[in-house]
Design brief:
The chain is of the alpha+beta class. 44% of the residues lie in helices and 23% in strands.
Length: 166
């Protein structure tokens, strides 16, 4: 299994990448995202005050899918180095749990959490700063056979520092 990370400068680019991955039959359950609260709220096609997405993935009669679906129904949490963020995906939840544990020791945050997933220090710093600047950190877990395909999609959709880790 491989984990392919990418930082997107904007929400629109990340949304496009997720849509392409879904079209290629990558599993939404293997997708993860961390984005600042203000970035998500300013970019999603969802009214956060009235949003309540049910099991049919419909919101006010409209289908919610892709990146908006991943983030819908989430509550922001605060990470010490990037502030209030929305987190979606199993690995992202584990990562933020690690960041919360590290916070108690006065060390931690998104960068430290990325390091626990074997992301190199320089790249972890780049991803952290990208999220701070309103970017979207996205990653997908896939088998070795499809890792190059996923990385290609993320690169084609303007993902920066696309890298894959075991």
């Amino acid at each position: 299994m491989r984990t392919i990370f990418a930082l997107f400068e904007g929400y629109r680019e990340a949304r496009s990448a997720v849509e392409e991955l879904l079209e290629r039959k990558f599993d939404e359950r293997d997708m993860n995202v961390i984005v600042q609260e203000l970035t998500a709220k300013g970019s999603m096609d969802v009214n956060f005050k009235t949003a309540n997405v049910d099991k049919t993935r419909r919101l006010g009669g409209e289908a919610v899918q892709g990146l908006d679906q991943l983030l819908s129904g989430r509550q922001p949490l605060t990470m010490p180095d990037v502030g209030a963020v929305y987190v979606a995906g199993q690995m992202a939840s584990v990562m933020t749990g690690e960041a919360k544990k590290a916070k108690r020791t006065r060390k931690g945050g998104l960068k430290e959490a990325l390091l626990t997933f074997d992301v190199p220090d320089e790249i972890a710093e780049f991803y952290k700063n990208g999220v701070l600047d309103g970017g979207v950190l996205f990653w997908v877990r896939t088998d070795d056979v499809r890792a190059a395909e996923a990385a290609g999609v993320l690169s084609d959709k303007k993902g920066e520092e696309v890298a894959n880790y075991t």
